[in-house]
Amino acid sequence: MAPQLHQRPPFRAEHLGSLLRPQELLSKKIASEKGEVSESELAAVEDKEIKDIVATQLKLGYRGASDGEYRRHMFWGTFFPGLDGFEEVTEFETDIFRPYAPDIAAFLEAGHKPGETVLCTGKIKHVGSTYVDQFKYLASLVPKDEVKNLKITLAAPNWYHLRYREGKAYPKDVYSNDEEYFGDIAKAYQAELKILYDAGCRNIQYDDPNLAYFCSEKFLDGFKEDSLNVYSADDLFQKYIKLYNDCFIGLPEDMHVGVHLCRGNFVGSRHFSEGGYDRIAIKLFQELNVHTYYLEYDTERAGGFEPLKHLPPHKNVILGVVTSKFATMEDKEEMKKRVIDAAKIIAEGNNISLEAALNQIGVSPQCGFASHREGNAIDWDGMMNKLKLVREIADDIWPNQP
């Protein structure tokens, strides 16, 4: 039987998970880190602010609501530090990193050590979810029949591999090669997904800037020049596709998984890389076993829509045509035209009607509003205006659809 299009989720209007934190929440987190308030005091504020932001999302018409990532410092959360075999370190040599990885390069150029560095120190094993309690609280805030729509974001399985140079991602006396290492990473994600599924979660979004780095000529040139590398960037990309697919072994049919690609979204709306999806499109769209692609498309640095001709008819794409980095508003009619332009390319690529191609599409901001808790160069009203605009675009193109 041909693969079926998985929808509701995703929805016609989506956002990418992270939302601006209210000042009270930021202040309380900083005070907690200084030992000035208790964990229970912080949790009470987090609970209150999450309850409020969920209500706001639902009021705006976003069915795939998240908790805004309000309990996280960075978008990737706590998955890796929560595994046996990984340890967060503060003292390390910078030569362990690929200096040409776009985010690493940005840190090093600014004279900073890359933050939140987690290293594999032993055999990797899942020993309990660091997300499930967060999801259970989120689920408690909506009617039971809405729980299946709620979205939780997860770190990319390759997150603590790409940033390290060949031979530095794990000890050689623990894993003799990438295949062994990736095998245990995949098992850990399988365990995480099962725990979340059993708690009622049906909507997962992986956040993966790393995959977009393979669109960057600067990164690819650095990779080619690195004498430590034992295979090509294309080979590594293929290994990451397999890693993802192995993570999804045993995935229930009613669990929706998607992947978000962007080119960086750091403090002050900093981006890290550039380059269109062209060189990775076939493998990304045809070999990666996800239902939905959440793609950055707000500036020229993401390239054009032409790669979407490779999107199969049983997969969705959420077009991030509205920027989350700055408050300047896009023209709604122009954004609607861009969506139609993308649909025409999908239709031509699959030899289907424009209407059928539009059925594979939704819209969103290009990234989160606060991948780092300090947030982008946009204020609360700016974020609200952007979310309203996305909803209006969706309502105009797909009337009466969530």
TrEMBL record:
One of its GO terms (molecular function) is 5-methyltetrahydropteroyltriglutamate-homocysteine S-methyltransferase activity. GO terms for biological process: methionine biosynthetic process. Residues 180-378 form the Cobalamin-independent methionine synthase MetE C-terminal/archaeal domain. It comes from the Eukaryota. InterPro entries: Met_Synth_C/arc, UROD/MetE-like_sf. PANTHER family: METHIONINE SYNTHASE, SYNTHASE, VITAMIN-B12 INDEPENDENT, PUTATIVE (AFU_ORTHOLOGUE AFUA_3G12060)-RELATED. This is Cobalamin-independent methionine synthase MetE C-terminal/archaeal domain-containing protein. It comes from Penicillium canariense.
